[in-house]
Amino acid sequence: MSSEEYANTSSYRLSSLSYTKRPRYKVSVQNLNSWFGSKQALKDINFDVKENTVTALIGPSGCGKTTLIRCLNRMNEMTSGAIVKGSVYLDDIDIYASNVDPVIIKRRMGMVFQKPNPFPTMSIYDNVAAGLKLNGIRDKVLIKEIVEESLKGAVLWDEVKDELSRPGLSLSGGQQQRLCIARALAMQPEVLLMDEPTSALDPIASAKIEELINELRKELTVIIVTHNMQQAARVSDYTAFMYLGELVEYGPTKQIFENPQKELTERYISGKFG
Amino acid sequence: MNNTEKNYHHSKDHRKVIQNAIIRQNYKRKMVNRVFTGVTIACVMLAMIPLGSILFEVVKNGISAISIEFLTQPQGSIIRGDGGIGPAIQGTLLTVGYASLIGVPIGVLAGVYLSEYAGNSKFAYAVRFFNSVMTGMPSIVIGIVGYIVLVITIGSFNITAGAVALSIIMIPIVVAVTEETLKLVPNSIREAAHSLGIPKWKVTLFITLRSAKNGILTGIVLAVSRVAGETAPLIMTILGTSLFFQGFVSPVDALPLRIWRFASQPYEHAHSFGWGAALVLIIMILSLSVLLRFLVLEKEFKLGSLVKK
Question: Which among A42, A161, A220, B166 could disulfide-bond with B99, CB atoms 3.0 to 4.6 Å apart, if both were Cys?
Answer without folding.
Answer: B166
